[in-house]
Design goal:
Elements: H1 3-16, H2 23-34, H3 40-60, H4 62-65, H5 71-90, H6 92-99, H7 102-122, H8 136-151, H9 157-167, H10 172-201, H11 208-239, H12 242-260
Helix pairs in contact: 1-2, 1-3, 1-11, 3-10, 3-11, 5-8, 5-10, 7-12, 8-9, 9-10, 10-11
Length: 264
């Protein structure tokens, strides 16, 4: 992987991680377009730069993450992340297979886009306007919705948790923020496991050159993500999901065309 390729992937990840458009789908299709072959390091990098994006949440919401007097906040995140950890471990073979099937990912993009066209009609009267109103039971159920993004790569982790939260009574803003919060332990666990697996199976991949690429791309992803987080909440409150539905359908169709023509 060249520095230019790493930078492009970092930009794509930073722009898409917190939007309900699936950063995984965008990365999986960007790789072949820019000539990045699937290797143990590139697969690990896709996960770790997601962690860099997630760390932007900690910076933007630092007062909440470092207010250790609010122990209930941390308990809710631990409870919410359990389903993803359990199903991620149990369904690893399915997940690996699905991630390698670009037709499946493109299909999920389109299907998710169709759902997005109707989401704003379905959940018009939220009853939970602040994270403090989210109890442990609701947090766990939002965590179960997150599992859908594991089972169906291309659905989008943020989309599944935001829509799941809205179905449970959360407002758009509250659902989006809780989705951001939940991403921190989820991606931290995924990144640590990915790096440990790579170190165990292909330790030579963690050489100085690759670590430098990982560091540069992570920094770029982090910076872009900070701006996206600040922008997305306001945009979602004002415009809802329909525009993302149209975007997903268009991108999903483009992905299928690229596959059909043998370009990716």
């Amino acid at each position: 992987m060249t520095p230019i390729q790493a930078i492009i992937l970092a930009i794509v990840e930073g722009l898409t991680e917190f939007l309900p458009v699936s950063s995984t789908a965008h990365l999986k299709f960007t790789n072949p377009i820019i000539g990045v072959e699937s290797t143990p390091f590139s697969d690990m990098m896709e996960i770790v730069i997601q962690l860099a994006a997630i760390l932007a949440v900690v910076v933007v919401y630092y007062k909440k993450f470092f207010d250790f007097s609010r122990i209930k906040f941390y308990i809710k995140l631990v409870i919410a992340v359990i389903p993803a950890l359990v199903f991620g471990a149990l369904l690893k073979k399915h997940i690996d297979h699905a991630l390698g099937n670009l037709y499946f990912i493109a299909g999920v993009m389109i299907a998710g886009g169709v759902i997005f066209l109707f989401v704003d009609r379905w959940f018009r009267h939220p009853s939970i306007e602040h994270e403090s109103q989210v109890n442990n039971g609701v947090a766990f159920r939002i965590g179960c919705y997150q599992v859908l993004s594991i089972l169906f790569p291309g659905l989008s982790r943020s989309a599944s948790t935001i829509i799941g939260g809205m179905s449970l009574g959360l407002s758009r803003k509250t659902a989006a923020e809780f989705s951001f919060f939940l991403a921190v332990p989820t991606m931290l666990a995924a990144s640590v496991k990915s790096m440990l697996d790579l170190h165990k199976e292909n330790p030579e991949a963690l050489n100085t050159e690759n670590l430098s690429l990982l560091g540069i791309s992570s920094l770029i992803t982090f910076i872009i993500s900070v701006f996206v987080i600040r922008y997305f909440i306001g945009f979602l409150r004002k415009h809802g999901f329909k525009i993302w539905g149209y975007y997903r359908i268009i991108i999903g169709v483009v992905m299928l065309l690229l596959l059909w023509r043998g370009i990716v």
